[in-house]
Amino acid sequence: MTTRIAPAPAPDVSPIVSMDMITKTFPGVKALDQVKLDLFPGQVTALVGENGAGKSTTVKILTGIYQPNGGTIRIDGDPVVLATPDDASQAGITAIHQETVLFDELSVAENIYIGHAPRTRLGLIDKARMHQDASALLTEIGAPFSSHTQLRDLGIANKHLVAIARALSVDARVVIMDEPTAALSHKEIEELYELVETLKSQGKAILFISHKFDEIFRIADRYTVFRDGAFVADGQISDIAENDLVKMMVGRSVEQIFPQTNHEIGEEVLKVVGYAHPTEFADINFTLNKGEILGFYGLVGAGRSEFMQALFGITKPSKGVCRINGNIEVIRSPADAVANGIVYVPEDRGKQGAIIGLPIFQNITLPSLDKTSRKGFLKLAEEFKLAREYSQRLDLRAASLDQDVGNLSGGNQQKVVIAKWLATQPQVIILDEPTKGIDIGSKAAVHEFMAELAAQGLSVIMVSSEIPEVIGMSDRVIVMRDGRIAAEVEGDDMTPETLVRHAAGITTPTEGAAA
Amino acid sequence: MSRLIPVRETILAAAILVLLLLISSRFAGFIAPSNLANVFNDTAPLIILALGQMVVILTRCIDLSVAANLALTGMVVAMINVAMPGLPIPVILAVAVLLGAVMGAVNGILVWKLSIPPIVVTLGTMTIFRGIIFLISDGKWVNSHEMSPAFTAFPRMELLGLPVLSWAAIITIILFGIMMARTQFGRSIFAVGGNPHAAVYTGIDVGRTQFWAFVVSGALAGLTGYLWVSRFAVAYVDIAGGFELEVVAACVIGGISIAGGIGSVGGAVLGAIFLGVVKNALPVVNISPFWQLAISGSAILIAVAFNSRSGRTKGRIILKSAEATQ
Predict the structure, then answer these.
(1) Over its length of 326 residues, how does chain B's per-residue pLDDT go in tens digits?
(2) CATH number for the domain including A206?
(3) Angle at which helices A156-169 and A127-140 pack, to 10 degrees?
(4) Does residue A9 fall inside a structural domain?
(5) How many CB pairs below 8 A link A and B?
(6) Among A425, A447, A480, where does a domain finish?
(7) Alpha helices per DSSP H over B206-289
(8) Subunit contact B190:A357, Cβ cutoff 8 A
(9) What span, in angstroms and rounded, lies between the C-alpha atoms of A120 and A128?
(10) In degrees rounded to 5, what are phi and psi of residue B151?
(11) Are residues A493 and A374 in the same domain?
(12) Cα of B110 to nearest chain A Cα, Å
């Protein structure tokens, strides 16, 4: 342990919830080891830690989904047992999850009051009162929709508002927000911050889980750091520097330095001409050169992923051609794309994930089976050879390549997925939000890897919403707005201001790169 | 944690052995090789259909129309035989497999192109196929005396001491063993069921794979249709009524995950054999065959409970020390 910061004096008030010496073990694994966490009324506590530090397990214990194996949870000083999610909700603890857990087919009011709807004297649901109360709550948090709206018609940001309204409706005293801004745009995040302030002023204790440091320093009052399932430190945000917090989190000093990208940029590999889709994007034109990292920046919903899916053949563009190595190629399906040397690592981890049930080597060779077959029959020896080659390149740690991929740790599973794509020997690799939701240490590893790929002559398209990453990694950046290319910038023009201006559509008369 | 010893299959094989021992303690003749061969022969149609069903279930679908497909194919080939008694058996076999495959393709197209849930599609086609038998046969039976001797003799013909019916099952098992382990189609089936989203990004067409799974299942149902009708020397609307449930049961008992992606040829075969042994042993040990339903039902519940326990996730490995000891 490099830094040990003396616990800051607790605020004058006593905590609403206090977890003490909480331990949670899964068969053979200690997920939490005697951790402590205090949540004070009217304060935002940021829970900070790398992936796998035990944050989610803590949330699950607080919401009654998991039972701790040891330790005490106190509410207002009295020890309690949160045996079920209902107990947690009775105790005034509510969580707003990363992916909101709501019902698409129900109305907003029904979502807010599900499980505790107001009843008539006959015991039936009092719809009139439910909508009346829901409307009052929605007004309070400034929601721009009615209680009668079907949830399915709302965007993610508004769904978050419904989740928050639900939290308020149960008179929650403790609100847990698990990466609430992960899927929100800038404007929506600002609105969320305002809401957090409102909740604070109402004396609620807020547990805020986030990977974004600017966010933590902006809205949190206190921090608690976990590392590898153990408590590291806690204290007032105002007493700590960003760097020290990072050090405590990773147990080592990590500098947010992007790898040197001294790769050579070669001839044109891919040229996209006039790609368009009836509803999602239009007029997409760009070229991609050998050994280049091309960043795609834009706000959430700018059409970047939608375009990438069309380029990869998952959806069909209505217009446009793409030229690969100078030849016009038609990509109608992902199989066509892979055959043309384009691979796509999607944003959603579930989708890009390994295929549980297949052993490691079969996961790696899955897109390359044409190479390992002879006369329609798979040659297991060839498969093993290919899998061994790429798993060694990525330093995959596994007892045997015949092992079920489900038994690997998360990091090693990710290596299997990457090995799978590299084994196809692609020319173009599309990485959609490659570092979203992962901790700083893993981010640096991904960045290094990306630079290495480019140095080997691969062309990388990186879709990212994180400006430092886009600027730090890309040779060139294309900014998309409302389904169109708003600008293409390179060199010294790649400044945060330029990117944000183009992405947000702020038209200032500067001589910066025009579209 | 190697998969060198497939735990589930070993346990199932052990259960079958225990069952055989129990039965032999009441009736020693049951485990005589000749009787075991008979039991296997009797179970052959179930084995063949279970393998087809396995492929479908692995892709996260289900085929409830197999028994109706079997009955319709059986009726058609029986009527062809009545109309053209001279038609050689290989032609009959080809017609049966082809017709079954076409019916499977109908299921597959509906699932693939119209995205109708497989259970709804095959529940519908199951009823439609039975209806068609009634229409083409006018509800009449085709009896043994109307069938040509060659037609009815084929499944009983002996090769190397085993009837053709048994050989059909053995060959299917071998072909499926090769198909699942050594072809791209077999690999795609596991990938589609294991993680359909990831499969799409890998360049596998999920719908097309499901379509071909239904075609395979249908073709086997067609093959079994001829073997069934010729073996029992009768064809009518209701043959193999409810047999689809027994087929699904064999798969479930054999450890084919109903959620897709997990299962093996060995498991499906053992699941079918388990049911076959139970069915054949009960009359021998003087237990009413009606108990068979209760026993198969219990076996399904035990198998599913066992699978869900063994498949339960062990939690993520979070502590570095725990990962190191792995």
Answers:
(1) 334 456 778 888 998 999 899 888 888 888 888 999 999 999 999 999 999 999 999 999 999 999 999 999 999 999 999 999 889 999 999 999 999 999 999 999 999 999 899 999 999 999 999 999 999 998 889 988 899 998 998 988 888 889 999 999 999 999 999 999 889 999 999 999 988 888 888 888 999 999 999 999 999 999 999 999 999 999 999 999 889 989 999 999 998 988 888 889 999 999 999 999 988 888 887 787 778 778 878 877 887 777 665 554 444 434 444 444 43
(2) 3.40.50.300
(3) 110
(4) no
(5) 128
(6) A425
(7) 206-232, 243-253, 265-284
(8) yes
(9) 10
(10) -60, -45
(11) no
(12) 20
d(CA A279, CA B188): 32
Longest distance between any two alpha carbons in chain B, whole Å: 75
Q: Which residue of A has its CA nearest to B316?
A: A409
- B126, two tokens: 């199951």
Phi, psi angles (nearest 5°) of residue A226 = -115, 150
Q: Are residues A150 and A91 in the same domain?
A: yes
- HSE value, Cβ hemisphere, 13 Å, CA-based, for B82: 16
Q: Which residues are registered as beta bridge partners of A271?
A: A287, A323
User: Would you state the structure tokens that stand for residue A440, as one six-digit string?
Assistant: 């700083």
A54 and A136: one domain? yes
Cα–Cα–Cα angle for A306, A312, A313, nearest 5°? 90
Runs of H (alpha helix) within A327-379: 334-339, 349-352, 360-365, 369-372
Give the burial class of A145: count Cβ atoms within 10 A of its Cβ; 0-12 exposed, 13-18 middle, 19 or more buried.
middle
Q: What is the DSSP string of B81-117?
A: HHH-TTS-HHHHHHHHHHHHHHHHHHHHHHHHHS---
Taking contacts as CB-CB distances below 8 angstroms, the residues of chain B near A30 are: 318-319, 322
| Sheet containing A222-227, strands listed edge to edge, beginning at the edge strand earlier in sequence | A78-80, A70-75, A17-26, A29-39, A230-236, A222-227, A44-48, A205-209, A174-178, A93-96
In a domain, A436, yes or no: yes
Q: Which residues contact B236 (CB under 8 A, 6 or more apart)?
A: B75, B133, B137, B140, B141, B142
* % helix, strand, coil for chain A, step of 5: 35, 25, 40
CA distance B144 to B232: 8
d(C-alpha A144, C-alpha A196), whole Å = 17
Same domain, A198 and A246: yes
Could you tell me the residue range of the domain that residue A409 belongs to? 353-425
Number of H helices, E strands in chain B: 14, 2
Record the tokens describing residue A8, joined without a space: 């800051």
Q: A216: which 2 tokens?
A: 């933590």
Q: Using an 8 Å Cβ cutoff, are A454 and A293 in contact?
A: yes
* Residue in chain A nearest B195 by alpha carbon: A355
Task: Name the residue among A29, A352, A400 with its Cβ closest to that of B318.
Answer: A29
Of A425, A448, A466, the domain-final residue:
A425
**Domain match, A311 and A176 both:** no
Q: Does the beta-carbon distance from B1 to A53 stay under 8 Å?
A: no
Token duo for residue B25: 């303690």
Query: Do both A374 and A245 map to the same domain?
Result: no
B214/B218 Cα distance (integer angstroms): 6
Does a structural domain hold residue A4?
no
Residue A333 covered by a domain: yes
Tokens read off for B140: 């009449």
- Together in a domain, A186 and A296: no
Say what the pTM is. Answer: 0.73
A368 three-state secondary structure: helix
Q: Do A362 and A479 belong together in one domain?
A: no
Polymer length of chain A = 515
- Within 8 A of A33 by CB-CB distance, chain B residues are 319
Residue B259 makes CB contacts below 8 A (sequence gap 6+) with B60, B193
- The residues pairing with A231 across neighbouring beta strands, listed in sequence order, are A226
Q: How many domains is chain A built from?
A: 3
Residues of chain B in contact with residue A308, where contact means CB-CB under 8 angstroms, are none
